[in-house]
Amino acid sequence: MKTEMSTALRTNGVPPSAFRRKLEIFMPLSPAESEFVAALESIELAFPPGTDIARDGDAHGDVYVLKKGWAVRYKTLENGSRMIVDFILPGDFASPAATVFTTADYSVTTITQVSAIRLTVAQIVDIFNRFPKLAMAIGWFSAREGACLIERLISLGRRSAYQRLAHLLLELWQRQEIVGSLSNGRLVLPITQLHLADSLGLSAVHVNRMLRRLRKDSLVQVRRGEVVLADIEGLKKIAGFDDAYLHFEGMPKRTAMAYAAAG
Amino acid sequence: MKTEMSTALRTNGVPPSAFRRKLEIFMPLSPAESEFVAALESIELAFPPGTDIARDGDAHGDVYVLKKGWAVRYKTLENGSRMIVDFILPGDFASPAATVFTTADYSVTTITQVSAIRLTVAQIVDIFNRFPKLAMAIGWFSAREGACLIERLISLGRRSAYQRLAHLLLELWQRQEIVGSLSNGRLVLPITQLHLADSLGLSAVHVNRMLRRLRKDSLVQVRRGEVVLADIEGLKKIAGFDDAYLHFEGMPKRTAMAYAAAG
DNA sequence: CGTGCTTTTGACCGGTCTCAACGCATGTGG
DNA sequence: CCACATGCGTTGAGACCGGTCAAAAGCACG
After folding, report:
1. Does the pLDDT at position B6 exceed 50?
2. Among positive and negative, which fits the CA dihedral B82, B83, B88, B89?
3. In terms of pLDDT, which residue wins out, A112 or B5?
4. Which H or E run includes B235?
């Protein structure tokens, strides 16, 4: 059995990283782009659980893209309460703004063991100078993240605790699926109920109650470190969940056409 | 009295637009970039109040940058409630994601009379291909918007209604100041209390009560269509407001150095 | 001077928080 | 193998923030 030349070139025999897989959802990579991305991915770092990758108020470091594991972006307020802004999954940027902002206005911590690709600012600048299409892909990453923030904002502003929790579970499940981490309704959740609470703007106690209610309504099953979404359609209906906002899709036709016209 | 040559070149005698002013906060424009931006700004459109610039679920149109007036980005849920995601002020993009997403997942409506610059997708692609530094500036715009979303998220998740309102007023005031609309504590607010409520995840009734409380505590004075922030320090203290997240600042040194190194 | 949108006010209700306690697993050191 | 500490999940009681409903008053605009 012969290996396809192009595949061998692209992947070097190993499955593509979450980062590459996401890039290829947005656009096909030219050989030059593909090679460049491979070079970017050559530096890989490992972080134990509970490591701070970035700290609120500090100068931004390099840019990291998660390869494996979970991290959270969060901020602690003066009164001591914590708000988790987003969960960072494989293929996500840890601090997308590091290239354009001088200081970080949130912290990033690993929850599990994490491995990540490191991109230097010089490499990002290089992308913008030499691979404008990849630069636009980075814009796409950032827009997707913004879309998630907007949807979270809608949850906190206009959905009940019960709905919010269902919505978050569905989102995390979908985002894991995009990146190829299993599943069919089986959601790996290496986080505590306090994480969920701080992300949903609720108390841990209330998250617990809502989780039990979801269980009682046979919408989910909760196990150690994982949740099984037993009735996905039911959850979607309750949460008003529509996965369109995740924009798990390619470059718009008219943008691709503009590129084609520009040559 | 002689006009400076460079200034005359940059502005053609008229004050720079909010868009250009913001760009120049991030980085100095080269003559070529400056000329290109001038060309971008040549097409200007006018929208009466209450016009939909984009609609939830529709295919994205062109990209608009506000020149004058106010608009809101919002979404209406199944249950009929509305969530305002952000206010769009002069110099802001109306739908930043239009180049990378096919369909919009929110609507944009003008509140006041609005004039806006229209950028076609082809022009954006042109920016990425020919002016990589401007492309990064667009990345900065988008990151700033993300930072505002994050701060709003923190408000909704972990701040009381009273704090949230104070925080929003301070943000709107600062954002107006950045763009050069006056002020010294005098905040032009062409919006209703219902707008504030839908933006803060509150009911209009409760916004009214909190506004009155702010007034009673001599922190603000409310007039028709404007709010005077009478005690800015007091408001900041209550809201836990720190303007760092607005990133009203230039390109980070190390990014500029990477550009210098690349030539 | 109606008409319609805002703002204002009051009474009541309910979702979510806080505080507090207890159970349960896991890990650690003696 | 036991004693203990620690962290997380679970449960209950009471308090409070903010929502809902309703009605009136103020203000623009035709």
Report:
1. no
2. positive
3. A112
4. helix B232-239
Residue B245 clears pLDDT 70, i.e. is over it: yes
Show Cβ contacts of residue A184 under 8 Å, excluding neighbours closer than 6 positions. none
Are A93 and A141 a contacting pair, CB within 8 Å?
yes
Q: How far is Cα B240 from Cα B47, in angstroms, rounded to an integer?
A: 36
The answer, yes or no, to whether residue B4 has pLDDT greater than 70, is no
Q: Judge whether residue B224 has pLDDT over 90.
A: no
| Other CB atoms within 10 Å distance of the CB of residue A19 | 23
Answer whether residue B2 shows pLDDT above 80: no
Note the CA–C1' distance, A254 to D6, in angstroms.
57
Distance of C1' in D9 from CA in A251, Å: 44
Partner B contacted by A76 (CB < 8 A): no
**CA pair distance A145, A18, nearest whole angstrom:** 16
What's the gap between Cα A115 and its chain centre? 14
Half-sphere exposure of A95 (CA within 13 A, CB side): 30
CB contact under 8 A, A83 and B200: no
Mean pLDDT of all residues in A126-141: 97
Whether A26 contacts A137, CB under 8 Å: yes
The DSSP code sequence of A221-255 is: EEETTEEEES-HHHHHHHHT--GGGG--S---HHH
DSSP B162-184: HHHHHHHHHHHHHHHHHTT---S
